[in-house]
Design goal:
The complex is a heterodimer of chains A (about 375) and B (about 375). Chain A is an alpha/beta fold and about 375 residues long. Chain A has 2 domains: about 220 residues, 3-Layer(aba) Sandwich (Rossmann fold); about 110 residues, no CATH class. Chain A is about 30% helix and about 20% strand. Chain A is globular and about 70 Å long. Chain B is of the alpha+beta class. Chain B has 2 domains: about 220 residues, Orthogonal Bundle (MetI-like fold), CATH 1.10.3720; about 90 residues, no CATH class. Chain B is elongated. The chains are: A alpha/beta (about 375), B alpha+beta (about 375). At the A-B interface, helix 3 and helix 4 of A face helix 8 and helix 9 of B.
């Protein structure tokens, strides 16, 4: 595997003006983020709302300026492209390679444009093709995501949420990208539709040879789709580990906390578990000194209140965590309280993994037939 | 909107495609449900038609005067009368006048003489004129058969000029100044408000403070000051344009606010971010993604701004500081109705006031209906 993208010492802070007379306040959304994305993997970024995961996504795709550090893209042609240093004009060609899928399918499609034009827009902007070729490319991309060709002349309001998200995916994929950033791409959808869209993303990954950065707050979804998980807290990466290792044995107390809050569909196993995450994420403007998590951590000691732990590999494995006691703590994983005798993985799967086999035509065609406007 | 859309041939051409409604098609469908607005549209449309065809509809030139018929009362237009045999006969006519001496005021007054019937005919020959300034014509909609007979359907003014003709020509000036003023305001409003809303930052703050400053000034004194600064020797056309500019100097602020608000709310929409991430230029984002989604709102806002313009022009001209005497507008016509004596003896001089009220109401109702129809949440 080769590195596709690396984020080095990335920081982003916002200055909040205090009005005309008040003092300016500084809000640190991201602090010294380091991570790299391998070609072909699905990297999930998880965390509570406000932890900076969306800001990170927006910084990577240069929808937002960064304060410090750099984002480097490694194209197939070789060489390094420092995305954070490029001007709007210079970055345009790389926008073909890095695309985004948005959270809200209701607002991410222009309500005044027909589906065809929405998907054709990137091709027109980059002057990739026109006429017959453009038409074929748009329609074949839409068909790949499960939108039938006869629907391309409709406006977005004629589609359901899941279908709209498919259109958003088609818009991202029509340029043949290498990296797709999916910012809460399935959070706004019903659970059954989530499954369809996740499966679609999986299929498309194989077909187009994609790499995903999958931003989500839903650990169940992340467990299903991700190869590697980055856990963020208050603008810091607190754990970065392959999915299996992270769910099996988290190395950061925050990860444990998140896993504890994972809902379980089996009421017998649910017994005696805490239902929600304790405490609240502190306001970004007045972050605690030392470890950002110490205010909510039940294992916190004096050193946590003074020194900020660095992200480091734990016991020489691929698992990295930013905790002073990462090696010593015995933290509970997601499978800990599963009844013995069952295949641990399988039982979790049964509750988490949506078993919907689809290949673009998962009943959405029938839905279309019914949805024809008068 | 979808200028680059191309016809899409698909394999499944056999499936009959439902007719697709464009955004304006949907808007029109919603608009039609608003009965009052539809009626208002007709009324406003009628007034604009009158303005367009002023020369054809007006029986005489607005400046044609006749000292013999000062303050002649309205003759009205009649269609049915008893002929000599005692039967009803159909045919348009007006009554003649006879003069009486008012014994108290010792003034000569005109009263309708029902004994004299002056037949009226339609599409009569007239002196050659140019319709809208460029179509040569020599036919008027109606006139008395003998051109020397008096013909004052709506009465005459102080100089014996035909009120109807003056009203029709005044309609043209007053309504066109409304449209011209709003067009100018719209231009400034979209450009300035658009910049402020899209780029934000200090420019936005500066523009908003300027708008607040302009709007905090009392409008009438401001207009008076500006209008008084116009050179007296300017031609009618120059004054007309100067007044338009003065009116839109304030009118743009409201529209700029509306446009800025729409830009601000759209700027953070995901589909605009998506277009930015597609690599689209600012110009493309504004013209292709943002403006089409609020064009209907802008049209509605502009329609609602027209009555304000018309009222402002009327007020200015009424006060003698807008358009000046040879130009006929509703405002200048109402100037004649300023004193109580004329109101008491010649109430028909208030006809322009009635027109103002009707047009303003119609435009307001129409604008309201349009705004409701353009609102996607108001289905």
């Amino acid at each position: 595997m080769s590195k596709l993208l690396s984020v080095e010492h990335l920081s982003k802070h916002f200055l909040l003006s205090g009005g005309w007379f008040g003092p300016e306040r500084r809000l640190d959304a991201l602090t010294d983020i380091n991570l790299s994305v391998e070609a072909g993997e699905t990297l999930a970024i998880v965390g509570e709302s406000g932890c900076g995961k969306t800001t990170l996504g927006r910084c990577i795709i240069a929808a937002q300026s960064t304060s410090e550090g750099r984002v480097v893209y490694h194209p197939t042609s070789g060489g390094d492209v420092e995305l954070t240093a490029l001007s709007k004009r210079e970055i345009k060609p790389w926008r073909q390679d890095i695309r985004m899928i948005f959270q809200d399918p209701m607002s991410s499609l222009n309500p005044n444009m027909r589906v065809f034009d929405i998907v054709a827009e990137p091709l027109r902007i980059h002057r990739i093709c026109k006429g017959r070729e453009l038409e074929e490319r748009v329609i074949s991309t839409l068909e790949k995501v499960g939108i039938p060709a006869e629907a391309v002349g409709r406006y977005p309001h004629a589609f359901s949420g899941g279908q709209r998200q498919r259109i958003g995916i088609a818009r991202a994929l029509v340029l043949d990208p290498r990296l797709v950033i999916a910012d809460e791409a399935v959070s706004a959808l019903d659970v059954s539709i989530q499954a369809q869209v996740l499966n679609l993303l999986e299929d498309l990954k194989d077909e187009f040879g994609l790499t995903y950065i999958f931003i989500s707050h839903d650990l169940g979804v992340v467990n299903y789709i991700a190869d590697r998980v980055v856990v963020m807290y208050l603008g810091h990466v607190v754990e970065n580990a392959p999915t299996e290792m992270l769910f099996e044995q988290p190395r950061h107390p925050y990860t444990e906390l998140l896993l504890e809050a994972l809902p379980i569909a089996d009421p017998l196993r649910r017994k005696g578990r805490k239902k929600e995450v304790r405490g609240e994420i502190p306001y970004l403007g007045n972050r605690p000194a030392g470890c950002p998590f110490h205010t909510r951590c039940k294992y916190a000691e004096d050193v946590c209140r003074k020194d900020k732990p660095a992200l480091r590999p734990i016991n020489g494995t691929a698992q990295e965590a930013a905790c002073h006691f990462a090696e010593k703590l015995e933290l509970k994983g997601a499978y800990e309280d599963a009844p013995i005798g069952h295949g641990v993985e399988a039982s979790l799967d049964a509750s988490r993994r949506p078993h919907v086999h689809q290949s673009g035509g998962d009943g959405s065609t029938a839905e279309f037939a019914r949805n024809l406007p008068e | 909107m979808a200028v680059e859309t191309m016809p899409i041939a698909t394999a499944s051409a056999a499936i009959p495609r439902p007719r697709r409604e464009s955004q304006f098609g949907l808007m029109w469908r919603r608009f039609r449900r608003h009965k009052l607005a539809v009626v208002s549209l007709w009324v406003a449309g009628l007034f604009y038609l009158v303005a367009l065809l002023a020369e054809f509809l007006a029986p005489v030139e607005p400046s044609a005067y006749s000292a013999r018929f000062t303050y002649a009362p309205p003759q009205g237009l009649h269609f049915l009368h008893h002929n000599e045999d005692g039967n009803w006969q159909f045919g348009p006519y007006v009554y003649g006048y006879k003069t009486e001496i008012d014994p108290v005021a010792l003034r000569r007054t005109f009263v309708i003489d029902e004994a004299v019937r002056l037949p009226v005919s339609f599409l009569v020959e007239s002196k050659p004129y140019r319709l809208m300034g460029f179509i040569p014509m020599s036919v008027k909609l109606m006139g008395v058969e003998n051109p020397r007979d008096p013909f004052y359907i709506l009465g005459a003014d102080r100089l014996g000029r035909d009120m109807l003709s003056r009203l029709i020509h005044g309609t043209r000036i007053s309504l066109s100044i409304g449209v011209a003023g709003v067009t100018l305001s719209l231009f400034f409003g979209i450009v300035i408000g658009g910049f402020a809303g899209y780029y934000g930052g200090w420019f936005d703050s500066a523009v908003m403070r300027v708008i607040e400053f302009i709007r905090s000034m009392p409008t009438i004194p401001l207009w008076l000051g500006l209008a008084a600064a116009l050179p007296r020797d300017w031609s009618a056309l120059q004054t007309y344009f100067a007044i338009t500019i003065i009116l839109s100097l304030i009118g743009w602020t409201e529209l700029a606010r509306v446009v800025r608000g729409r830009f601000l709310s759209l700027r953070t929409e995901d589909f605009v971010t998506a277009a930015q991430l597609d690599g689209a230029s600012d110009w493309r984002i504004i013209t292709r993604h943002m403006v089409p989604s609020f064009m209907s709102h802008i049209i509605a806002a502009a329609t609602l701004a027209i009555p304000g313009m018309i009222l402002a022009e009327t007020a200015l001209s009424f006060l003698g500081l807008g358009l000046q005497a040879p130009i006929v507008s509703w405002g200048t016509l109402l100037q004649d109705a300023q004193n109580i004596r004329t109101l008491a003896t010649a109430p028909w001089l208030l006809a322009p006031g009635l027109c103002v009220v009707v047009v303003i109401l119609a435009m307001n109702f129409f604008g309201d209906g349009l705004r409701d129809a353009a609102d996607p949440h108001g289905r």
